[in-house]
Amino acid sequence: MRPTVIRRTAVAATVMSLALLTAACGSDTADGDAANKDSGKAGASSSAKPADKAGAKALSAAELENVSLAQGDVKGHKIAKAGPADAISGDDVTTDKAACDAFADALMGAKAGQPAASTQRKVVSEPKKGGDKESDDPAEAFKAAFDITTTLVTLASYEDGGAEKTLSGLRTAATECASGFTLTAAGSKQKIVKIAEVPVKSGEEAVAWSVTVEAEGEKSAMKLIEIRQGATVASLTSLNLGAAGAGGDFELPTAVIDAQAAKLA
To answer: Which helix (H) or strand (E) holds 93?
Structure first.
């Protein structure tokens, strides 16, 4: 493997760690049981959430669990609940431009605003078998072998029109910060070089961006997709390890987007 590929691989691993996107989706029974118990309590205590200004009801934690992705919902992908170790708070994410705070929070998987309830899932695509044998070029072979897109899916329900406000705020932040900014998450600094909107259709309202990230002089891509259905916002942050290691781009996780939108509909 060429030195450049090795450096990019290290950078990709750093970015993935920073974004809380892991390359394996193992299950944690203890965490899962605890989450189910907490969801049950939340559902019992907040079963009558008020509707937002558009008339959509803010879903409770238990209701969000029912519409969250589960293993088997997306063919060729592994899905697991995100555990406590995967959680990040907006307080842990800072930027050098206040206008970019909302976008940085969403990109790092932190919950935006003050949701009434939320859930998180880790979704990992399975690599193509034999993909690493299709090219004699080390960089291309690496990209093929690690063509794994990992997505952190956060569902959040909002009261009083909060879902619409959340997407509106993200659109504004993306526009104002399109030329880049620097963010720090959990003590690690990362430079966002460019934010470009990409086409996506899903739910009642949707928007997606391709984000160019630079670390140690190497650039890689991340994707941020936001879908609103009623008073619920699905936020998806994706990174492809092979593309990051080869310094290239990757497609939106369409299968994951479609599956989550279908469960919210």
So the answer is: strand 93-95
Given a cut of 50, the residues of the chain with pLDDT beneath it are: 1-3, 6, 10, 14, 16-51, 53
Helix (H, G, I), strand (E, B) or coil at 136: coil
Q: What pTM was computed for the model?
A: 0.80
pLDDT at 31: 40
CA torsion sign, 196 to 200 to 205 to 211?
negative
Give the dihedral of Cα atoms 180, 184, 190, 191; nearest 10 deg: 20
* 113-137 pLDDT, tens digit each: 889 999 999 999 998 765 555 566 7
In what order do the strands lie in the sheet containing 205-215?
A: 77-81, 117-125, 149-157, 232-240, 218-229, 205-215, 188-198, 181-185, 93-95
**For residues 125 and 114, what is the distance between their CA atoms, to the nearest angstrom?**
30
Give the tokens for residue 135.
């090219």
Helix (H, G, I), strand (E, B) or coil at 139: helix
Residue count of the chain: 265
